[in-house]
Amino acid sequence: xxxxxxxxxxxxxxxxxxxxxxxNLNRLLNENDNLYKKMYQIEKNSRSILAKQAVTAQGKPxxxxxxxxxxxxxxxxxxxxxxVVTVVYSNTQENISDAQINSQIAVMNxxxxxxxxxxxxxxxxxxxxxxxxxxxxxxxxxxxxxxxxTSWGTNDEVKxxxxxxxxxxxxxxxxxxxxxGILGYAQFPGGPAATDGIVVGPNYFGNTGYVxxxxxxxxxVTHEVGHYLNLRHIWGDGRCQQDDYVADTPSSDGPxxxxxxxxxTNCRSTDMTMNYMDYTNDSCMYMFxxxxxxxxxxxxxxxxPRAAMAN
Length: 311
What we know:
This protein is of the alpha/beta class. The protein is built from seven helices and seven strands, in the order ααβααβαβββαββα.
């Protein structure tokens, strides 16, 4: 196993929330040696883009800027991603309604555009970091597939059975019972086109209909789409020294669960427990940071792995 892409520290198995994205990544890395090289290049490219943006934001000598340094920009504008939802069901409950599907699209748009009302709950320490990622989503289609299989696991078998629609330009979401208490898992940029997208359990999708508290606000999909756009868990899937490659998300000793009190302190700093890339309950996560915005948007650059979505 390649050690650069660390797995969860095992705490998830003992708690209610279970995202399988890192385990899925390590499986793909073990199956395909070229994927490690590809992801290394994606990471190198992202850092190069961000470094150039930082230099541009600081301005050229003699420009007389003064004041605060302007935020870096990528000049891509608002990016709108079409979404195809494939509902695979073995009973009527799993065949979720159009209203439930539409509610998830609405949650995604609110969360990624900082239009969610609970963003106002952000503590003062982090309030200036709450980001509108300028990424939004439109429902392009729904496929409904009846199948007697009652659980699909995390080895992408549901994707093999129902291949993705135009994955280079479309976010594919498979809604099916994964099993094992797993809420969802995503494929990071750079993985095989034939399995690109995210998989989510039907009762963790949307905020109305067949949903299970405390993961009934649609934030599982927000979290998994974060991975799909190359965001890591904010604790870096390791202890204090493990990085999520984002400077403005404080280091942590591991995931947080439930609804932590503020401040929750680890690694001599306050954890950003309200970040979508932690493991807290849906009602207690409500922000991406500016650093996460900058990082995820590098995948849409002309040299990025999801450049086709920005055109």
